[in-house]
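Dear Dr. H.,

I hope your travels went smoothly. While you were away I took the liberty of generating a structure for the chain from your last submission, since the lab meeting agenda had it listed for discussion. I wanted you to have the full record in hand beforehand rather than looking at slides cold. The sequence, exactly as received, is reproduced here:
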Amino acid sequence: MSPEDIVERQLDAYNARDLERFLAHYAETISVYRPPAALPAITGKAAFGAFYATQRFNRANLHAELVKRMVLGNKVIDHERITGARDFPFEVAVVYDVAGGLIQRTWSFEAD
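The corresponding predicted structure, in token form, is as follows:
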């Protein structure tokens, strides 16, 4: 499976709020970065899964719309419009670093 295929499948699982299928695309050592912070906001699949179980997939109207995607080798960069996670829609650019068939790291940049 290509890096783009992996990212697409995790996006589909996200929109289905299917935690098990979503997590299947992430490495045990997943690190989630939210720049400008230099340290990861979330480290490890257990913490990552707990965050999505309690902060995202419990929201009935959660949806990520893919606005645009760019692929550069093993990096997939998505511009996404998120609804249902907050009281208002917001946009993010997410960089997915894929290696060994799994997402190893992500960086999320929010629009100002």
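Two observations you may find useful: The radius of gyration is 13 Å. The chain has a mean pLDDT of 97.

With kind regards,
E. W.
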